[in-house]
Amino acid sequence: ETSLKVTGVDLLKSQNSKQHHTDGYNIENLVVRRGQPFQVQVSLNRELRAADKLSLRFSIGENPMKNRGSLLSLKPEREDFNGWKISIDKNNGKECLLTVTSSPSAPVGKYNLHVKTGTNIYKPQNGVIYLLFNPWCEDDVVYMANEAEKKEYVLNDTGYIYVGSAYSIYDRPWNFGQFEEFVLDACMYLLDKSKLSLAERRDPANVSRAMSALVNANDDNGVVLGSWSGNYVGGTPPMDWIGSVTILQKYYKTKKPVRYGQCWVFAGVLNTVMRCLGVPSRCVSTFDSAHDTEGNLRVDIYLNEKGEKLNSLSFDSVWNFHVWNDVWMKRTDLPNGFDGWQAIDSTPQEQSQGRFQCGPCPVKAVREGDVYLPYDSKFVYAEVNADRVYWVVKKVNGKDKYFKVGTETQDIGKKISTKAVGQNRREDITREYKYPEGSKEERMSMQRAYSFIRPSGLMPRSGYASTVQTLGGNTQPLVPKEPVTKSGLHLEITNTEPLHPGNPLEMAITVKVSTPGYWTVNLTGSCQLQYYTGEVQANLGTIKETINIEGPSEMQIPLKIASDAYMKTLSSVEDEVLILVTAIAEVKETNDKLTKETSMRFQYPPITVQMPETAILYNDFTCAFIFKNKLNVTLENCKLLVEGLGIFKMTTFEQGDIMPGRIMKSEIICTPTRLGQKKIVAKLISDQIKGISTEKAITIT
Fold first, then answer.
1. How far apart are CA 390 and CA 402, in angstroms?
2. Is 385 known to sit in a ligand binding site?
3. Is residue 471 part of a domain?
4. Residue limits of the Transglutaminase-like domain (predicted)?
5. Are residue 346 and residue 442 in the same domain, yes or no?
6. Which candidate, 155, 162, 231, 621, has a CA 20 to 30 Å from the CA of 40?
């Protein structure tokens, strides 16, 4: 009797990958999701009989062993093995069709498939199968019921990251590109590098925490090296990236950290990695995000007597925006009630358990004030809930004295934003992170959080200030309310003309008093340029005025900065800078003090994209990028960066200098290689301007 031998194995890639929503991956191998059946066709040298022994063997890792669960030997119709099972669907002649169902809690990663018949072992070509998390499977902890949400948070390979300031939010298009060539392999490399055990690879909480550590280069030679230095020689400035694909491909090729990133780059790459592995994920931007290094829910801001913010004194800071990620999962390691979105953050800010990693922290724990829950919930809570305290530093008898000039309790953690499901617009998700300011629930959540984070009293906390006597030794947590003053004083800061580079900056501080009577208000105002991390780059000008006002009424005080006061700074830094206006008002009659700050971004002329609305697969079409310099300054050393996933690879056009009034036009011939709606992203970078970007969609049929 001839012994049973396998003559071929077909992994039926096209039918399996359609059913598993993995047909987008640009890879030769079969990619499937756990907990869901897939079919394998085995060809034999003769027909299969009842007495024959046939088994499929799936192995993972360096040294697969049955007792460790890294070698699975599956025999048809036998009870399952580690939650996996296999059955014979069709057995006619020499062809045998098998259905394999992996466990919905199987370790994710790369499995080798061998077929064993008796003592013969057959190794198929391309027998490496990639197994991912499965949001379509009800028994998987990443299960997501809503179809439109899965389409956005797992399958969408483009999106936006929201940046700017609370006063002027803008969307930065970003190509996640989780299906592009080598991206899945890069994620598998990171999984191996993470040294997670097989058991740990079952749980997306462990995997997402490990990925938050590996996307930054700190500790472990991870993907992106962060830099906020303003000088990016020897690498790509953070502003120049328009997606994750180039970064992950370069990292996979060199196995060395890619230079350089800032928070939106880390968040964009981590979003790609999580979606690629099958965990629903979204980029989340918080405006006025606290970086509270002492964990006392307070950020101290120091101003000089001109009202200008001082960098040198502060250990902690308020970032104009900070971007992290939310990933979706059931938290089997926590008490009930904390399933759903979990915050993870790969920007290297502070160490957690000895590594630069952050999360997963349940978003519900942040909202409820349950900040004892793992991981890093105190840190995330402070980012969206700290108080901002303003101090003026004055010289008294040659010594620095600190005077408190305001406390903002509702200022931090505003306009928390992500891209809306299925739409190109911003969705505000602040309510998922916080109860409405001033509500009963917010009060209770705050008291709960304060019972785990002991906030210190109102001491100024710079290194220089630690020896100074405080003004009023109040150590109670501040009751969160807008400071009510006897005069009903209120400040507003706005721009009165568009903020175009090369033009004067025309802004105004509006002083309002709501209480009847005659009031004398001393107003100090300053204008500075700062990075989004809150670090001041240049002082542009100040005003000091005493105004007499009869309440209730308001007065508008102009603040104007000539263009040559800031253009030099604008051209010399490689980051986008924001305009920071700070105002301090003191009412003489009542000694009321109030401080207000607003950050604004420069406004730029647009790039327009010209191309057809539809194109046919593999048929060329032309795409043109047009930019008219409507500013009063020459834009020097212009570069146009363009990328279209499934259409063309990242391309850079050197454009030289573009004089005022001049029009730049660049064309690219595109060959679409994938069906469906695709997007083209373009970005213009120059010495003067760092961030004009745009995108346009095209449907490939």
1. 10
2. yes
3. no
4. 255-348
5. yes
6. 155
Q: Are residues 101 and 178 in the same domain?
A: no
**What's the token pair of residue 242?**
């328009």
437 is in an annotated binding site: yes
Average pLDDT estimate for 273-282? 98
pLDDT tens across 473-494, in order? 333 333 344 455 788 999 999 9
Q: What is the C-alpha separation between 461 and 455, in angstroms, rounded? A: 12
SS3 473: coil
For residue 552, tell me if it sits in a domain: yes
CB 181 within 8 Å of CB 315: no
Catalytic annotation, pick one of 187, 263, 276, 527: 263
Per the annotation, the verdict on 500 as an active-site residue is: no
Q: Which amino acid, one-letter code, is at 277?
A: L
427 marked as binding residue: no
Q: Which of 557, 580, 585, 542 is nearest to 406 (CA)?
A: 585
| CATH number, domain with residue 360 | 3.90.260.10
Residue 167 CA to residue 264 CA, distance in Å, equals 19
User: Of 554, 584, 601, which one is at a domain's C-terminal end?
Assistant: 601
Q: Are residues 269 and 194 in the same domain?
A: yes
CATH of the domain at 78: 2.60.40.10
The active-site residue out of 140, 171, 240, 345 is 345
In terms of domains, do 424 and 502 share one?
A: no
* Tens digits of residue pLDDT in 666-687: 999 999 999 999 999 999 999 9
In the chain, the percentage of residues whose pLDDT exceeds 90 is 84
Specify if 629 maps to a domain: yes
263 is catalytic: yes
Task: Please report whether residue 224 resides in a domain.
Answer: yes
DSSP structure class, residue 352: B
Look up 333 and say whether it is catalytic: no
* pLDDT reported for residue 455: 55
Select, from the ranges 292-301, 406-415, 561-570, the one with the highest average predicted confidence (pLDDT). 561-570
Same domain, 290 and 408: yes
Q: Which residues contact 492 (CB under 8 A, 6 or more apart)?
A: 509, 510, 512, 596
Q: Provide mean pLDDT across the span 246-264.
A: 98
What residue type is assigned to position 493 of the chain? I
Domain identity same for 78 and 155 = no
Give yes or no: residues 160 and 284 share one domain. yes
Number of domains in the chain: 4
DSSP 81: B
442 labelled ligand-binding: yes
The catalytically annotated residue of 322, 376, 592, 623 is 322
Domain membership of residue 568 as a residue range: 489-601
